[in-house]
Design brief:
Layout lengths: L23 E4 L27 H4 L24 E4 L40 H9 L4 H13 L17 E6 L5 H11 L10 E2 L6 H7 L1 E4 L11 E6 L3 H7 L6 H10 L2 E6 L2 E6 L1 E9 L3 H7 L12 E5 L27 H16 L7 H15 L7 H20 L8 H21 L13 E10 L2 E11 H8 L1 H5 L2 H11 L3 E5 L10 E7 L4
Parallel strand pairs: 3-9, 3-10, 4-6, 6-9
Antiparallel strand pairs: 1-2, 5-8, 7-8, 11-12, 12-14, 13-14
Helix pairs in contact: 2-3, 3-4, 9-10, 9-11, 10-11, 12-15
Length: 530
């Protein structure tokens, strides 16, 4: 990738963005030295073209910067215009030059896709790893996060900056059977030259307990023994991630807390009557999780992981209809050892401003800021940049925003019984269906039948009869789509009726009697207060 010319360096003030919701956007070509913060790009479903111009064009001398001309309108003119906005209803939201504020809008781009696939926007990827992800010919999100985890497993050196800042990540690829999770993982490893069985950075051992984790990356230690002088970097690659998550649900297991410790630090240990065990490792994880939809995902990331392990993972859902070119694809192997990099004050201000704004709006940020920092360090190291640049941090924040939208659909389970889990599944599925209908992206049970339908109903206003269209969820289609009848049998009907009797969901009745189950027509609606 061509270096950024010094006379085209980007300041924080150049990255202040337009806030708009329904503007018509026309894209212009993007150079590597500029950042496209177009909110509409966040719903892109495919990668179109490279992130930057060819090296021949990038190496061309940049024009001399000129002083900005005052404009009578509030719009600013950047060094390289990225988005031309027509009929913009709001003016430029300019804030303190020391921070950045983003106004992103992400929608579930799922259509008839069963597993609620949310595609990663193109501008979330940055630099060399973004180019490699595109060359895998795999879905953009899973390919990019796979390369992030594998590259982090080679050991990213932080030259200076925050002493507690780390560059290790946990990644889970989420999808149903035959969606291509293993293909994406294998291609990513081959692209980085890590596909050999004896690669020193890759560990494929299935971890069965906390003791197994400590013995795999450490072993038995003598009391008072000093830590090793050099702590190795490893990436745990698991083609069947369900096996590891299943062990976290074992009663009295400390595997979850041990994994959390290794995400936050380089050491984890335990002791019993047989001795003391410790592991010293910079650990990253890349695992394939079989989950057809958010309901099955919640079963795997259940109560045992909701205490902190779920929040430490990066997730990438798979589409069900991605077409892989198995015969024509060849890897473009390019080994590039991690380069030392550091986190800058300017990048810290950008991440803090992004998190502060979300908290002010009542949004839960969790560990997304930390994820953004780690992704920025990994991509800067892969790009051979001595520090995290503003455009690198901006791409990492867009990546974090994408993860925030994924977490709205893929959430950790909180139920402790099958009935409670089914209750959560029904409420979440009805909520997603109703919101998708309101957003103009109705969920389909099949090619012809929508899950939410609008039915004409009469109502009275000042003694005058009027009609209106009311959206209702066709419950049988919703339950069939999620397989509840096959999984739970008559339990789904009992749970649904209990929710009606408790006024959590409303039933459309022929006589208007909510609690008379015999008069129900099969259409239900989740109360807006739920």
């Amino acid at each position: 990738m061509a270096p950024v010319p010094r006379d085209m360096s980007i300041t924080v003030d150049d990255l202040v963005v337009h806030r708009h919701r329904r503007a018509r956007v026309r894209h212009t070509p993007v150079e590597h030295s500029s950042v496209d913060l177009d909110p509409e790009a966040l719903v892109a479903t495919a990668w179109e073209g490279p992130l930057h111009k060819p090296e021949a064009e990038a190496a061309a001398p940049a024009p001399e910067p000129t002083a900005p001309t005052p404009q009578p309108t509030p719009e600013r003119k950047g060094a390289t215009p990225q988005v031309v906005v027509e009929e913009l209803p709001s003016t430029l939201d300019k804030r303190d030059d020391s921070t950045l504020f983003y106004d992103y809008t992400c929608n579930l781009d799922q259509g008839n896709d069963k597993n609620y696939y949310l595609s990663m926007p193109d501008d979330c990827a940055y630099g060399w790893l973004g180019d490699l992800a595109r060359d895998t010919h795999c879905p953009p999100g899973p390919a990019y996060v796979s390369l992030l985890a594998l590259y982090a497993g080679q050991g990213v050196t932080i030259s200076s900056g925050e002493p507690t800042q780390r560059a290790t990540i946990y990644v889970s690829l989420v999808g149903g059977v035959h969606t291509g999770k293993s293909v994406c993982m294998e291609r990513s490893m081959r692209m980085l030259g890590m596909g050999e069985d004896d690669n020193p950075f890759v560990e494929t051992t299935v971890i069965a307990s906390d003791r197994g984790l400590l013995q795999t990356f450490g072993g038995k230690v003598e009391p008072g023994a000093p830590p090793p002088a050099i702590i190795p970097s490893k990436v745990l690659v698991l083609d069947e991630f369900r096996e590891l998550l299943g062990k976290t649900a074992v009663q009295n297991s400390t595997l979850t807390s041990t994994l959390c410790k290794l995400w936050s630090g380089n050491r984890a240990g335990a002791s019993d009557k047989q001795g003391k065990y410790a592991a010293y490792v910079k650990l990253s994880i890349l695992g394939n999780l079989k989950a057809d939809d958010p309901s099955e995902f919640a079963e795997m990331f259940g109560v045992s992981t909701s205490s902190g392990l779920y929040d430490r993972f990066i997730f990438a859902p798979f589409p069900t209809a991605w077409k892989f070119d198995f015969e024509g694809w060849l890897p473009r192997v390019e080994t590039r050892p991690p380069s030392p990099t550091k986190f800058t004050i300017q990048a810290g201000q950008m991440s803090t401003a992004w998190a502060t704004r979300l908290r002010e709006e009542g949004e839960d940020v969790g560990r997304l800021t930390e994820h953004a920092k780690r992704v920025a360090l990994i991509t800067a190291s892969a790009n051979r940049e001595p520090e995290v640049t503003p455009e690198c941090m901006a791409a990492a924040l867009r990546f974090a925003e994408w993860q925030r939208q994924i977490r709205k659909a893929y959430r950790a389970g909180v139920a402790t019984t099958p009935e409670a889990q089914l209750t959560c599944d029904i409420m979440d599925a009805m909520d997603r269906a109703q919101k998708a209908h309101e957003a103009g992206q109705p969920l389909m049970a099949n090619k012809h039948d929508p899950i939410v339908v609008e039915i004409e109903e009469d109502y009275m206003v000042d003694g005058e009869s009027r009609t209106r269209m009311v959206p209702w969820v066709h419950f049988r289609l919703l339950a069939t789509k999620h397989g509840w009848y096959k999984k739970t049998g008559p339990m789904v009907t009992k749970v649904r009726n209990c929710l009606v009797l408790d006024n959590i969901i409303l039933a459309r009745s022929r006589t208007g009697e909510q609690h008379n189950l015999r008069t129900h027509t099969g259409f239900y609606r989740l109360r807006s207060t739920c």
